[in-house]
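Lab meeting tomorrow. Please check the following:
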Amino acid sequence: MDAFFASVEQRDNPDLRGKPIAVTGAGERTVITTSSYEARKYGVKTAMTVYEAKRLCPFIILVTGDNKKYAQICTQLEEICLRFTPDIEIYSIDEVFLDITASHHLFSGPDNLARTLKGTVKNELGLTCTVGMGPNVLIAKLASDLAKPDGLRWVDDETVPSVLEHLPVKKLWGIGRHTEEKLRAMGITTCGELGRAPLSPLTKRFGIVGEHLKAMGNGRLERPLELDPPEPKSIGHSITLPKDIGKREELLSCLLRLSERVGRRARRYGHKGKRITLTVRYGDFTTFTRQATLPAYTNDTGDIYRSAVAILDGIRLRKSVRLLGISLSSIGQDAEQMTLFQEEDREKKAALTKAVDIVNDKFGEHAVTFASTITQEKEHRVISPAWRPSGVRKSDV
């Protein structure tokens, strides 16, 4: 999708069309989540602070994002893509991979399928997208990046070498700034140079990843689509607080709400875990984690919360806290035998929790919640990079 969040806002508000806008979160500590192409001409980028964006473009228009709306459009996009092939991977909220090997003949070939897909997205969603096609996800993604915005590009096997020859290595999916710097130190700046580089120096510098990098330099990436997402390794939530806090009662209130969100999502998809991880970030962005292992698998809010509190009480906080996060990992099944009375108590607790979950599913998250959390300031949520429109990675936004 092209400048997804910003394009949605321009679609829904004609006064924003053709103007430099940036979508932000609702809190004071927000950053730029997406900028329109008009704003990008001035250098405004994702993750910039509002101050930086205004310095580059003083007349930029800031728009508070609507996460629920973006999530709904992503779900609609998924439905559209499934009309063209059942083999799709939702890679992020604004990006989808499609394997059209077995279906393109139904649309008179890959090129016509791509054009039909673009037209369908435009007609039904009122948004533009860019389609890149290639022999694998690496080249398809590159083709899309090179064709933005509102473009279509097909890079087939025969044209891969010429496209890559003078292309900077940083253009390849997965090569970040640090890898780019290390390659530059080896005299490698283009994909063509990377593809021709001797393997030995690459593996000496990067280990087995060196083989992977050389293959990418030649336009190869053996990565199948993730059609059926694997079981989650962890389920977690974090929150950047509206202001730094240090009082124990404030921290505990936040931990309880996070514990409920983690437990609720785990219960929704039938997962339990034995390890609790607490993440703490100070106001100066110093971040650390601490873990604890439970005696049995659980997805109960109380179990998660008590473990998180015990971890917190074992930490000597030196500064006020900017961010808190809780995750449940070591996902598995509880095979431990409980005594009869413990089983009865657990069944009563599970029945109560299920009733609360049903109410919250119907009337919205926190319709029924713990009394100690209701005085909290409203959370200013952002969409996690791990968010997906279905499955355990779908969380309330």
